[in-house]
């Protein structure tokens, strides 16, 4: 079985991982610490946003701030595993408070072009990824303190999906969820079920003992609690949609049937407009208030549907 990492055993450190759960969106954010220094990375932080009232709050992000400050950590990276469609990124807020470089896959530029067209964003909106401090390439190596990390491009759930192998832990976003749930959906803008299958298989080629941290959990049919950590070995044996034995044709059929049961995410357009800006809000209007757009997609409109 081929490995996607080139690290040698002696180089692999075991990061300390702290998870922060948002029950509203079922999202896990992570602080990943280099055990040999005070350096850390924050993965997928979120803002608390109430669509009905328009209120933005920083409760979840401030929990991360308190944790980082209490441990006297130095934030080097604030990483998005993809352009989320179910929550708004707190990357800029945390950068302002704690420092660190915001980063996402370079493929974010394609998502920026998609949403710029769909939402008719002004020409001043740049589609070159410059809202982020760093754009990762596939297989790019980087450091968190002394700990080696690799960005692994995993398109399928979305165009900008990237898993991050950090020491002996991999953060997969929505490409794989807990084994009884399977994978993230593959029907929103930029999604592609076949690519999701092959990206999930690519992750399964990591060493079996690699710890695997998921981006979401909602509890399964048989459990009333949420989980965030499993391993590559467990996923290979037990993932209900993409395990070692799974065939692409079965996955396409089953993922497609599941996707047909899912409503569009409540925060799809709100989240996209903030997240393609790297966590910046849209520019304020003349009254100093920021606004979000929602396209009205009739069946006869050019876009027709947001579904892939
Ligand atoms: Fe997602």
Structural description of this entry:
With 308 residues, the chain is of the alpha/beta class. It has a single domain, classed as 4-Layer Sandwich (Metallo-beta-lactamase, Chain A). The protein has helices at residues 59-70, 91-98, 108-118, 193-204, 232-238, 248-259, 268-275, and strands at residues 16-22, 27-33, 39-43, 46-50, 55-57, 74-79, 88-89, 101-105, 134-136, 141-144, 147-153, 162-166, 169-171, 211-213, 229-231. The strands form 3 sheets. It has a 6-stranded mixed beta sheet with strand order 1-2-3-6-8-9, with helices on one face. Helix 1 runs parallel beside helix 2 and helix 4 (193-204) crosses helix 6 (248-259). The longest helix is centred in the first third of the chain and has 12 residues, at 59-70. Residues 1-10 have low confidence and may be disordered. Bound molecules: fe (ii) ion. Fe (ii) ion (FE2) binds at residues 82, 84-85, 157, 174, 184. Fe (ii) ion (FE2) is lined by residues 82, 84-85, 157, 174, 184.
Largest beta-sheet characterization: 6 strands, mixed
Span between N and C termini? 32 Å
| The CATH homologous superfamily | Ribonuclease Z/Hydroxyacylglutathione hydrolase-like
CATH topology: Metallo-beta-lactamase, Chain A
SSE ordering: EEEEEHEEHEHEEEEEHEEHHH
**Ligands, deduplicated:** fe (ii) ion
What does the average pLDDT come to? 94
Helical fraction equals 10-25%
Q: Layout of SSEs?
A:
Blueprint: E1 16-22, E2 27-33, E3 39-43, E4 46-50, E5 55-57, H1 59-70, E6 74-79, E7 88-89, H2 91-98, E8 101-105, H3 108-118, E9 134-136, E10 141-144, E11 147-153, E12 162-166, E13 169-171, H4 193-204, E14 211-213, E15 229-231, H5 232-238, H6 248-259, H7 268-275
Parallel strand pairs: 3-6, 6-8, 8-9, 13-14
Antiparallel strand pairs: 1-2, 2-3, 4-5, 4-7, 10-11, 11-12, 12-13, 14-15
Helix pairs in contact: 1-2, 4-6
The structure holds fe (ii) ion.
Fe (ii) ion binds near residues 82, 84, 85, 157 and 174.
């Amino acid at each position: 079985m081929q490995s996607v990492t080139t690290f040698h055993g002696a180089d692999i450190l075991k990061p300390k991982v702290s998870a922060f759960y948002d029950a509203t969106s079922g999202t896990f954010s992570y602080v990943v610490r280099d055990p040999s220094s005070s350096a850390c990375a924050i993965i997928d932080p979120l803002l608390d946003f109430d669509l009905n009232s328009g209120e933005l709050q920083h409760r979840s992000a401030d929990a991360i701030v308190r944790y980082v400050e209490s441990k006297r950590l130095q934030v080097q990276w604030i990483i998005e595993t993809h352009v989320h469609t179910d929550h708004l990124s707190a990357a800029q807020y945390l950068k302002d408070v704690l420092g660190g470089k915001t980063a996402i896959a370079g493929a974010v530029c394609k998502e920026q072009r998609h949403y710029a067209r769909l939402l008719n964003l002004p020409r001043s909106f740049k589609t070159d990824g410059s809202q982020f401090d760093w754009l990762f390439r596939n297989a790019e190596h980087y450091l968190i303190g002394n700990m080696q990390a690799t960005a692994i491009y995993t398109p399928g759930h979305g165009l900008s999906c990237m898993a991050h192998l950090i020491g002996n832990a991999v953060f997969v976003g929505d490409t794989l969820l807990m084994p009884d749930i399977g994978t993230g959906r593959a029907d929103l803008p930029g999604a592609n079920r076949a690519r999701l299958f092959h990206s999930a298989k690519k992750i399964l080629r990591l060493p079996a003992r690699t710890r695997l941290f998921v981006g979401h959990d909602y509890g399964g049919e048989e459990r009333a609690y949420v989980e965030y950590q499993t391993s590559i070995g467990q996923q290979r044996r037990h993932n209900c949609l993409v395990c070692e034995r799974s065939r692409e044709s079965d996955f396409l059929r089953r993922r497609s049937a599941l996707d047909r049961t899912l409503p569009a995410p409540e925060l799809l357009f709100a989240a996209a407009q903030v997240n393609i800006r790297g966590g910046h809000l849209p520019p304020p209007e003349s009254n100093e208030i920021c606004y979000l757009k929602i396209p009205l997609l009739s069946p006869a409109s050019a876009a027709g549907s947001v579904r892939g």
